[in-house]
Amino acid sequence: MQSDRCRPPGWHRSSSRQPEETRVKTGFLLISCAAIALLAARGNADEPKLLRVCADPDNLPFSDKEGGGFENRIATLLAEDLGMKVEYFYWPHRRGFMRSTIKAKECDVLMGIPKGMDGFLITRPYYRSSYQFVSRVDRDLDITSLDDPRLKKLKIGVHTIGYDYNNSPAARSLGARGIVGLTGYSTFYTDENRPDAIIAGLAEDKIDLAIVWGPIAGYFGKQSPVPLSLAPLPDVDQSTRTPYAYDVVVGVRKAEKDLHARIDESLERKKAEIAAILAEFNVPLAHAPAAAATEGQPSVQQASTTGHGTDKLLASADEYQGWKWFHVYCFRCHGVDAMGSDLAPNLRKSVSSEGLITHDLFLKTVLEGRQEKGMQSWKELLDQKQIEQIYSYVKARSDQRLDPGRPHRATAAQ
């Protein structure tokens, strides 16, 4: 239907014929309206489409609101390759980050996602890094193992939150070896708590050794006023089954299948430029686990089955669904594979015979939350059956019936 401004004076909807002068004017105005519409469409087509990215506004070396992080740089690189323009929605990496960003459709893309997470489409990995032992060169510690007996006598710094340092993966591995009394550095970044504080602690002799995620260790270690040495932790700590090396991917909203495919292709085309950006930020890279075990160090895949004789990633229907719900709603605080994080405890231990969380208490806590601990109620997002499925998954992990990693669902034949 034509708009009124495109209709000439004297034209009436009920008229079967129009004066010749009016018909001429009508033709001219219709052509003018069509031309205007064509130009407007062409103008919109010339404008680059937006690559909508959610990121933390204060989380260097990954991202900040000035675009100074390496994830900012890589997002821009991909956008330019795709003929797009980056638009950011900034939200701090806190409890509810996923729900407030990509789940709320504030963006289509999340950078820096550990491979194996569910809830969105994931691309090919664009880098792999691992936690690092960081120490002063002039101390000549050369720590390369969590089993080094000297660790019991060192002041060790780890990233954590609050006063429960056992939330940290590093603290968990060390605690299993009787190493306690760690120095915690908050990951709730404020004007007082900065991401480089743990590295500064080494330079200021407040700690002897730090265990830090690779990109943070490399970036701030390079800026340290005293020379520092970095050594990677093993891919997996065999004593606690805690992973310390991760493939990192781009997460794309499930509805954006075409965008996902295009980003995946762009990552392949731009891998040399991405490698250059990572090198500029001094990100220590880890090699993918070998298909076969090397002497003294089994691969991650082999470690999950060696000595069991069964498929330790085979999950029941409820366990598999629980794994999916967990990695949509719970992983951000409780860690990938329910192993805990700097934000919340290791649920595998909590629901074990050594823990205090019974089946009924687990359900009650998820439904009602624990406001005093900063945990929200999930009853608006999860029903009783979904919470039961999450418990089934966590309990399977706790009982060591499921190994770390992406499980697969049992079939009727199995």
Low-confidence blocks of residues: 1-18, 21-43, 162-166, 290-309
Structural class estimated from helices and strands: alpha/beta
**Care to count the β-strands?**
16
- The total number of structural domains is 3
SSE pattern = HEEEHEHEEEEHEHEHEEEEHHHEHHHHE
**Overall residue-averaged pLDDT value:** 80
Main beta sheet: strand number and arrangement?
10 strands, mixed
CATH superfamily of the largest domain: Periplasmic binding protein-like II
Number of distinct helices: 13
User: Given the C-alpha coordinates, what overall shape results?
Assistant: globular
What is the CA-CA span between the terminal residues? 61 Å
Proportion of helical residues: 25-40%
At CATH level 2, the architecture of the largest domain is 3-Layer(aba) Sandwich
CATH topology of the largest domain: D-Maltodextrin-Binding Protein, domain 2
Task: Indicate the topology.
Blueprint lengths: L19 H27 L2 E7 L2 E2 L3 E2 L5 H12 L2 E7 L6 H4 L8 E6 L6 E2 L4 E10 L19 E5 L8 H7 L7 E4 L10 H7 L5 E5 H9 L5 E5 L3 E2 L4 E2 L1 E8 L4 H13 L1 H10 L19 H4 L10 E2 L1 H18 L12 H4 L8 H10 L15 H15 L9 E2 L5
